[in-house]
# Entry
Amino acid sequence: MTWRALLLPGLYSLLAVALPAAAAGSAHATAPQNLHLFLLVGQSNMAGRGEIEDSDRVPIDHVFALNARGEWVPAVDPVHWDKPSAGVGLARSFAVEYLKHHPGVSVGLIPAACGGSPISSWAPGEYFDGTHSHPYDDALARFHQAAASGTLKGVLWHKARATAARSWPLATNSR
# Structure
C-alpha cells in the first residue's frame, strides 16, 4: 500500500468531523443570545476618533459588537468603521460601566454612527456622501439584524458640530 492509500482516508475522516465542529463552534461564538442591545448613532464623537492603544484591542468579557458584515464579534476598537480615521470612542467605556450596574448580562453594541453627518441626513431615505450611506435607514437595518440576539435597551446618540450653524434650528424646525 502507498502512503496515500494509508493516510488520505484518515485525513478525510478527520476533516469530516473537525470542519463541521469548528464551524459550529465559531457560529456559537459569533452569535451570542439574550444581549442587552445598544444602537450607537451620531457623528464622529460617537464613531470615535481617539488614538488606539494596545489595551483598546483587548476584548472585554461579555461585550460584543456587530461588525460591518453583520456578525457578532468581541468589541475592540475601533468599534465603528464609518471612515478610515475611526478610532477609540465611547462604546466600550459605556459597556464597562453598564456591566458594573447589570452584572451577569452581555452587551451588544450596534455601531451605526456617520462622522460629519448633518442632522438632515438622519431622516428616512436621506443619503450622506461623506460615508456613502443612508444613516437612518442603515441604522434601522442594523438594529433589525441585531434584534434576534437580544433586547434593545437604549439608543446612544452623540452628535457634534456638523450642523452647529445658526440656521440649523430654523432649518430643522421647518421640516
Remarks:
- The longest helix spans residues 3-30.
- The CA atoms of residues 54 and 155 lie 28 Å apart.
- The two ends are 81 Å apart (CA to CA).
- The chain has two domains: 1-30, 31-173.
